[in-house]
Amino acid sequence: MSAVVVGHWFNGWFMRLFGRAYLVVADEELPVAWGRPTPVQLPDAPVRIGAGVRYLDRGPLLGCEPQAYEGHLGTRGTEALRVTLRNGFWNHSPFRLVP
Fold it and tell me: What is the pTM of this model?
């Protein structure tokens, strides 16, 4: 499976300019590029997935509230499964799984 971390249209420019995106899978932080698919290996059991931003590569991971992900793991037919995580209107809004 792959995951994509994107910012909201209103504040995404600010986060891309000053922040670095991180994907959190089963409590492990992975630095990722904004808007680019990142391959992820998931455990067989349901897992918690989240994303956050760290400004200027220091300080705490902001906007990260991992959610339980119980979707079909692996592939869907011949098509690889991809999930997208996006934050809300404000910079401090948490990243959520979006359809």
Answer: 0.85
Distance CA 45, CA 1 (A): 14
Residue from 17, 20, 11 nearest 62 by CA: 20
Q: Mind giving me the DSSP string for the chain?
A: -EEEEE--TTTHHHHHHHEEEEEEETTEEEEE-TTS-EE----SS-EEEEEEEEETT-SPPBS---EEE-S--SEETTEEPEEEEE--SSTTSPPEEE-
C-alpha–C-alpha distance, residues 60 and 39, integer Å: 24
Report residue 51 as tokens: 């994303």
- What distance lies between CA 62 and its chain's CA centroid? 12
Residue 90 is encoded by which pair of tokens?
Answer: 């404000």
Output the CA angle 36-11-24, nearest 5 degrees.
45
pLDDT digits (tens, 9 = 90+) for 24-43: 998 899 999 999 999 988 77
